[in-house]
Amino acid sequence: SMMISQNAITHEAIAPAGSISYQMLARIAWALALTTQILCCACGLGGFINSILSWEGWLVLGRLTYSVYLLHLGLLTLLAVGMRKPFMFSPDFNFATWYLGVLLMSYLAAIILYTCLEQPLAFIEANTYRKQK
């Protein structure tokens, strides 16, 4: 049997040709749109999107992202092992609280890791290579 797509707003059936066209062109169109935006930002024509993407706060989050990536799985494991009963993910406040809690704890742990380990080692490395030249 053929799968029939539905319009998400009107719930009307979409013709197979329209569905196939969308599936073929959607990713290409998205990639071209992002490429155009990146080129516009690089040429100084990005407008307000360029100011959002150039925000200084992204630098801080970018420095912490790898630490968060390394730490979050261990944190999730610790939280799961410490549970007294099974946790059911449901699309309500419970899941949002779990997600935001893990995100906050991961970033706090990443800040500690960054300030205690990464930043001092980067300082030592920079001074070591600077003195050798």
- Count of alpha and pi helical runs: 4
Spell out the helices and strands N to C. Answer: HHHH
Helix content: over 70%
Rg of Cα set: 23 Å
- Shape type: flat
Low-confidence segments, given as residue ranges, are: none
**Number of strand elements:** 0
Report the portion of residues in β strands. under 5%
Q: Please tell me the overall pLDDT.
A: 86
- Class by alpha and beta content: mainly alpha
Sheet of most strands: none
Q: What distance lies between the first and last C-alpha atoms, to the nearest angstrom? A: 71 Å
Structural overview:
By secondary structure, the protein is mainly alpha-helical. The protein is 74% helix and 0% strand. It is built from four helices and no strands. It has helices spanning 16-42, 48-53, 57-81, 93-132. Helix 3 (57-81) packs across helix 4. The longest helix has 40 residues, at 93-132. The radius of gyration is 23 Å and the shape is flat. The protein starts with 15 loop residues before the first helix and ends with a helix. The relative contact order is 0.06. The mean pLDDT is 86.
Task: Map the helices and strands.
Blueprint (H helix, E strand, L loop, with lengths): L15 H27 L5 H6 L3 H25 L11 H40 L1
Helix pairs in contact: 3-4
Question: Which terms summarize this structure?
Answer:
133 residues; 74% helix; flat; mainly alpha; single chain
